[in-house]
Design a protein that fits this description.
Blueprint (H helix, E strand, L loop, with lengths): L1 H6 L3 H22 L2 H4 L2 H13 L4 H10 L1 H11 L5 H19 L3 H33 L4 H52 L4
Length: 199
């Protein structure tokens, strides 16, 4: 395996680095974007009861804020509880936008890796073909072993670039869709808090 890696040339190190960064982001986002991590089911009921009871204090709001991303949204609404539904709605919307933005952390990096690794592989192909034509110019086409190194480098880097880029693109799209789903969950929870102020 290492021989195959070495045969791909120096660009394989860049592709390897990209793959390690991508793997780190993917595992971190898988753990972070779980529903129970972002919007725990039990929190909504507790916050609705707290808002209806009228026993909201600064200390309780701080505890809620540190609880989870949904807690940050709820805390923004509870901070504006005394100012009425309109102020609450604005605060909830603003906090929701910030939380959704944070949920997308590192995804631009993952998307960039998905885009550039196939291009790095393509660059390896070009470099490999240049070596092939240089070898042809120097010694002609009579000895195929002279050409095999350049062709091998071209094919290996292309395959490596695609092998990293394709899964990265799949996870990037998956995480974008997951964030959209979580944004809907956050909105539903925020509306439940707003509903406590009606009537």
């Amino acid at each position: 395996m290492f021989e195959l890696f070495r045969a791909g040339g120096p660009l394989m190190w860049i592709i390897l680095l990209c793959s390690l960064v991508a793997l780190t982001i993917i595992f971190e986002r898988i753990l972070t974007l779980r529903t129970k991590q972002v919007a725990p089911a039990s929190l909504r009921k507790q916050i609705v009861e707290l808002a209806r009871s009228g026993r909201v204090t600064a200390d309780k709001i701080d505890v809620v804020r540190k609880h989870s991303p949904l807690g940050k949204v709820f805390a923004a609404g509870l901070d504006n509880l005394e100012y009425g539904p309109d102020a609450m709605r604005e605060a909830l919307e603003e906090a929701g936008k910030q939380v959704v933005h944070r949920l997308g952390r590192y995804l631009n990096t993952l998307g960039t890796i998905a885009s550039i690794t196939p291009l790095i592989g393509l660059l390896g192909t070009v470099i490999g073909m240049i070596k092939v034509f240089t070898a042809i110019t120097a010694s002609g086409v009579g000895d195929p072993t002279v050409l095999s190194g350049g062709i091998s480098e071209a094919l290996i880097t292309t395959a490596a670039g695609l092998s990293v880029g394709i899964p990265c693109l799949m996870f990037y799209r998956h995480f974008r869709g997951r964030i959209s789903e979580l944004a809907v969950v956050l909105e539903e929870n925020a509306l439940a808090l707003l509903d406590t102020q009606k009537g």
